[in-house]
Amino acid sequence: MATPYDILIIGGGPGGYVAAIRAAQLGFKTAVVEREHLGGICLNWGCIPTKALLRTAEIYHYAEHAKDYGLKLEGKITYDPAAVVKRSRAVSGQLNGGVGFLMKKNKIDVIWGEATITKAGEVSVGKPKKQPVQPQHPAPKGTLGEGTYQAKHIIIATGARPRVLPGIEPDGKLIWTYFEAMVPPEFPKSLIVMGSGAIGIEFASFYRTMGCEVTVVELLPQILPVEDAEIAALARKRFEKQGIKIFTGTKVTKVEKGGNDVTCTLDDGKGKTSTLKAERVISAVGVVGNTENLGLEKLGVKIDRGMIAIDEVGRTNVPGIYAIGDVAGPPMLAHKAEHEGTICVEGIKGLHPHAMDKLMIPGCTYCQPQVASVGLTEAKAKEQGLQLKIGRFPFIGNGKAIALGEPDGLVKTIFDAKTGKLLGAHMVGAEVTELIQGFVIAMNLETTEAELINSVFPHPTLSEMMHESVLDAYGRVIHT
Amino acid sequence: MPTNILMPALSPTMEKGNLAKWLKKEGDQIKSGDIIAEIETDKATMEVEAVDEGVLAKIVVPEGTADVPVNDVIAVIAGEGEDAKAVGAAGATPPAKKADEKPKAEAPKQEEKATPAPAASTNGSGQAAPQAAAPQPQQQTNGAGRVFASPLARRMAKEGGLDLAAIQGSGPHGRIVERDVKAAIEGGTAKKAQPGAPAAQPGAPAPKLAPAGMSDEIVKKMFEPGSFDEVPHDGMRKTIARRLTEAKQTIPHFYLTVDCDIDALLKLREQVNASAQKDKDGKPAFKVSVNDMVIKALALALTRTPGSNVTFTENAMLHHKHADISVAVAIPGGLITPVIRKADMLTLSGIANAMKDFAKRAKDRKLKPEEYQGGTSAVSNLGMFGIKDFVAVINPPQSSIIAVGMGEKRAIVKNGEIVVGNVMSVTISCDHRAMDGAKGAELIAAFKQLIENPMAMLV
Questions:
Q1: pLDDT tens-digit series, residues A154-169
Q2: What gap in Å lies between CA B140 and CA B137, rounded to an integer?
Q3: Is the CB of residue A420 less than 8 Å away from at least one CB of chain B?
Q4: CB spacing of B159 vs A354 below 8 angstroms
């Protein structure tokens, strides 16, 4: 039998592979078990390929508005759905191969197959019970195969999958999840998106830009439910202006499948029902952790509401077994998984990492306009009974935004009036997903409004709006 | 325009002071020249006069606040026609930090080193420390004493009145972060800073009283909890600790002891005091003490011993033309050293009356900085406590100090015979940088000569 691993990680997604690299850096003999695709959902069916699709949509949008910038594009701009999808898959494939390279470079063993923890310190790897989603990137070379592996520490990083509503089970043809929505043979003419979280809204935005009739149905009273209400309302206005129909506080109670269409029954919660017909439905009503078939029940690993319960450094209640990322609870974001993986491995090393402050995890939605945020929303801050100072700065007051032809958007900052602590930052508008990290750093360094006010922001940039928003919170705004 | 009232520099070396008392309250009409507040400096309480007119819109630094840096805004005055409330609410904008401001030209060295009071310059002009002295630069602290803390942690510690230095940091590289301050507030583990004392400024924390040694926490752990009362230092204690530590560490001291026969001196003193005119209540116009005669003798010895009435500076020796004798006066809670200026020129009765006035005002802590700063040598007398002899620590910028013991009857040898005489032991401490052993011996011999032949002091 091979020498036991120090750390074996089940799942090669962003949580798992980053944890593996950190473990290798710290001198641990490390292995990753993966049954389907290195890089996980993020690289293969999530963050990355959708960004590729949205980039296509963005360029298409600009091309259609070329004359706004003094350009003449002759003829009609069209697109080839197969080529759009092909580009997205190529981007994904490149990064998927990159993860394989990183594993080799860091001398991390990749074990190909599906893992079950047979007992503490032992993992059995067999053939995957789950059919891989197609099309698959080629499996990496030089992987280890099925068998029994020993490891002192086992980290579960198995991620999550789309939540299925009873009676509205995705069939891969008429009722899609993000998997099918990402690789459609052709783009539907009409689409109903169930759920207005990041996944739902990004697909709604993509398909609408590509010319599809899109309706978003959200159960909660607000789209982008985790975002600040003011920001979400501004985003909604923009989406509706683009022609996306939005129903909030509305439930899809039934989906009837036709030959090449579906009919949804909607309940507005006040006793009124209606029907809506479209070619396809995307079910984007959240994700659930992959806790099954790991042998957790037998080992007595505690699972709470579908998520593996962990302490602040990723330990489960069973010694030697850890969990990170989506399977260990929200927010289900790649960067949160990566960070948890690092903390977990450093904890094993005895480096006493600090527990992650989930309030400092930024969230980004790459729709048009983009939405980005970190920290408390205004409503949440008020719930905590805090006295607030709130600053707002609109894109219309920013020179760079005007030059870009992106005059719509808002940067909102929320401070604790008593201490000057930056509690939250919320943005909607062009490129805000690239701006938010400024506030993330500020929060991590525990700056107060004073340091932000005293920082020099380059002109002309969109980032000046971050400065102005802080100035506004303290009654010192310049450009409004 | 609302006007900021800044923490004044009441003496050339003043870096910060305690805001002892507000004599005006928010909303009061202020006229130029009004006394608006009392500032407690190192050793004295001073009054702050208003320069501008208007309404006191806002008191920024509450009374009882310790260690307010010079030039910090302490209050805001609303000018004529301005809404005092609005001005007060808006607060004052702190003035631009005058970091680039050059130190006063006449005493650049001292200021750079932030050490002794520039006695020479104040003294030479014969003027009191100028009120309008150029703003003193903040004390430059080297990196070693810096407390690393996040801006939020600093602010929270300040609001909570906690001393950052007493908080253990748990952030990267031991940086103090929000959770540490929260824990300190909840657990009550951090000691309270002086009431309302500002938390350490970024990059310029409160200078340590003693540069080395164990932390407060470690020291306290060596005693049974509850077996002691903890009395926070006042400004005087801090100054004594800082200046004397500095003196003993930077000045190479050497000591010379002589026994002085004071029979003649005691006799002369009686005669002098008997000659004092009496007023109608029978009170004499003066009463000269032995100590007054010691002051006079030291002053004359200094001026008569070339090279002994000096101050050592980095690049030059300051040879003083007059002897300013600093006299240690014990007061409740500490010690202060009023300076008898030009003691070589004063009569015994002049010295006696000056000392009487100083002693009274010292006890009330009403001495002005220019009255206790500077000096070229000093007298410390513990004779009244029955001390036979001792050695004293030189107080910069002085270069010597004499420690005077008790005058007592001793068996002495006079003209080859053992007789009983009144003898007083005196030990001089000298700054070896300023004078060598022979020079010190010459000085103390001249002193002894004057004490034993006191008539020479009268002419």
A1: 999 999 999 999 999 9
A2: 8
A3: yes
A4: no
